[in-house]
Automatic annotation (TrEMBL):
Residue stretches making up the M23ase beta-sheet core domain: 165-264
UniProt keywords, alphabetically: Signal
Protein name, per record: M23 family metallopeptidase
Organism: Oceanobacillus piezotolerans
GO terms of molecular function: metalloendopeptidase activity
Pfam families: Peptidase_M23
InterPro entries assigned to the protein according to its UniProt record, in alphabetical order: Cell_wall_metabolism_enzyme, Dup_hybrid_motif, M23ase_b-sheet_dom
Length: 288
């Protein structure tokens, strides 16, 4: 956090963007690797320039080879593994396009060339701005635990009410109208009707994970795409919508279908939410 703020002072680019880029890159990296202070990985050919084969860290030599590596800590060298140099270099890469939010979005697109990556970083920066913090570890269970509900591990079941060949999620059975909560800090990415999911909401969190809530009876009033959420925020209520044109309901017992999808920077894949639901349920009960 101190490093992000220091780079903001040096470059006028708000710290939330460095924090969000760093966060995105940390979450696409192999979790077995030792954690670094700053996880942003700038490719050698961008840092040192093409033809700078000895990877010379002298900033004048890097300039000659049209490398982008910069010296952020004032030691005269642009080191690709120095946290301050990395952040200062990233700031300068972005500043080529300008300092406003729109400029930064363009800068990020030119650097990553992937819409979902840019979207995720921009969303994460919004969350960091809202809460003024990067250590956002709170979670909640997706239905209000003061209501009756039941769930078991249905991951991979052939039958299920999700409309997918394999059941990609957990079904939490509860009565119509049971409040549905955001489980995490994140931003509403999609909301509306889809054929199998019915009234569904997708929330992208700050760990590159997409949380999918389906079959709801309706959405919380005023909720909209782009809105920042925290754990426990009510997003709608349990229903049995889906399997037909908009409004179709009652083709199966009311329940919330909850799915999780991880983005690794190239593609998205579903994984079993059940162990997380168990954990968040315990956390919610402890708070009660
Ligand atoms: Zn389901």
């Amino acid at each position: 956090m101190a490093l992000y703020k220091k780079t903001e002072t040096l470059t006028q680019i708000p710290w939330i963007y460095f924090a969000a880029i760093d966060n995105f890159e940390r979450n696409i990296q192999d979790s077995n690797e030792p954690e670094k202070v700053v996880s942003i990985n700038i490719p050698d050919e961008i840092w040192f320039g093409i033809g700078n084969s000895g990877s010379n860290t002298d900033t004048q030599i890097i300039n000659i080879f049209e490398g982008k590596g910069k010296d952020g800590n004032g030691d005269g060298k642009a080191e690709i593994d120095n946290p301050e140099d990395i952040l200062y270099t990233m700031a300068n890469l972005l500043l080529e396009y300008g300092p406003t939010e729109d400029d930064i979005k363009i800068g990020l697109w030119n650097y990553y060339k992937r819409d979902l990556t840019v979207q995720t970083i921009m969303n994460t920066s919004k969350v960091f701005r809202r809460f003024g913090d990067i250590n956002l570890t709170d979670r909640d269970f997706p239905v209000n635990i003061r209501y009756n509900y039941s769930y078991r591990n249905t991951w991979g079941d052939r039958r299920g009410f999700g409309g997918l060949r394999m059941h990609e999620g957990t079904d939490i059975f509860a009565d119509y109208g049971t409040p549905v909560h955001s489980t995490t800090y994140g931003v509403v990415e999609v909301m509306g009707w889809n054929l199998y999911g019915g009234w569904r909401i997708g929330i992208r969190d700050i760990y590159n994970i997409y949380h999918y809530y389906a079959h709801m009876s309706g959405f919380q009033e005023d909720l909209q795409v782009g809105q920042v959420l925290k754990p426990g925020d009510v997003i709608g209520s349990v229903g049995s919508s889906g399997y037909g044109p908009p409004g179709t309901s009652g083709k199966f017992p009311p329940h919330l279908h909850y799915g999780m999808y991880k983005d690794n920077g190239y593609s998205e894949f579903s994984f079993d939410p059940f162990p997380y639901l168990n954990k968040w349920e315990r956390m919610a009960k402890e708070k009660k």
